[in-house]
Write a structure and sequence with these properties.
The protein is of the alpha/beta class and about 300 residues long. It contains 10 helices and 13 strands. The chain has one domain: UDP-N-acetylmuramoyl-L-alanine:D-glutamate ligase (3-Layer(aba) Sandwich), CATH 3.40.1190.20. The strands form 2 sheets. A 9-stranded mixed β-sheet has the order 5-4-1-8-9-10-11-12-13, with helices on both faces. It has a 4-stranded mixed β-sheet with strand order 3-2-6-7. The mean pLDDT is about 90.
Length: about 300
């Protein structure tokens, strides 16, 4: 079982709203690909919260794993796209997922130790941080953790970064986030040397670096692997492409795919998402060409 913990919210685009939040996007992709996934978050006692519970139930998640907050609203992000479909996010503070609590219901979910836990930094920006840390600190040794940093402006600090690195077996970050880390740690060296130091100092097994049109690279203890981006003729927007990439990265690690195959498949899946509006496909048929990956090896 894969446990994804973190924010679920509505992305408000100029043309309307779409369900989102990196941890939910990650979980929704894996669920649609046929893998066992549990998603944990918190929403408000409002219309958006009701709509989210209905939506996740339709996608096969257990709504009982979603907490309700009687005081704070459901999470919300406004999204503006530039001429290349690249998003700019404005994240509303002080919302329901900021108060994710370690409840008896959450403890019951964790009574079945997950094979992998997904988390990021946004859920750690306020009161939810101790809950996330308790989940990570009490996991059994066999449970692997994948951290998608997702550094959003004014939503992280050195404490949340350091905590995340300490608990990461797999670390996913963009080249922009890599630059932020180098600046925050005040390290003047090459990106490759800095990543090598991160892996050594924090005992991280894999670091996945995505670099947009430059492709992506996977740093492992057994070598470094790289792949060009998937050839995408039409980019509608890139919202959620990184979450899809992270989902295939996690699936590949759990299912034992070789690193070069993971990279090719992650790039192909992320490229397919870029041809659609928003972070999560509306049509289940989108996943049909990719479901065979969960059952077989073979090429991308």
């Amino acid at each position: 079982m894969i446990l994804a913990v973190g924010e679920i919210l509505f992305d408000y685009f100029p043309e309307g709203k779409r369900l989102g939040g990196a941890p939910f996007n990650f979980a929704a992709h894996l669920k649609s690909l046929g893998l066992p996934v549990t998603f944990v978050s918190r929403v408000g006692m409002d219309a958006d919260g009701d709509e989210i519970l209905d939506a996740i139930a339709r996608r096969g998640f257990d709504p009982a794993a979603i907490q309700r907050d009687p005081e704070r609203p459901t999470g919300r992000v406004t999204v503006a796209l530039d001429e290349n479909g690249v998003p700019e996010f404005t994240i509303v503070p002080d919302v329901a997922y900021d108060r994710l609590a370690y409840t008896e219901a959450l403890a019951a979910v964790l009574s079945q130790p997950p094979d992998m836990i997904y988390f990021g930094t946004l859920i750690q920006r306020s009161e939810a941080a101790p809950t996330v840390m308790k989940i990570l600190e009490t996991r059994p040794p066999s449970t692997r953790c994948i951290c998608d940093l997702n550094l959003r402006e004014d939503c992280y600090d050195m404490n949340s970064i350091t905590r995340s690195l300490i608990h990461s077996d797999i670390l996913k970050l963009s080249d922009g986030e890599l630059s932020i880390l180098q600046e925050r740690f005040d390290v003047q060296t090459t990106p490759e040397r800095f990543i090598d130091d991160l892996m050594h100092n924090f005992s991280i097994a894999w670091v996945s670096l995505t670099s947009g049109v430059q492709g992506s690279t996977l740093f492992t203890r057994d070598g470094v692997f790289a792949v060009a981006p998937d050839k995408t003729d039409t980019v509608v927007d890139t919202v959620g492409a990184g979450d899809g990439y992270a989902a295939i990265l996690a699936a590949g690690r759990l299912l034992g795919w070789p690193p070069d195959l993971i990279l090719r498949r992650a790039a192909r899946f992320a490229g397919a998402l870029c041809r659609l509006p928003g972070a999560i496909p509306d049509e289940p048929d989108f996943y049909q060409p990719f479901r065979s990956w969960m059952r077989t090896g073979g090429d991308a």
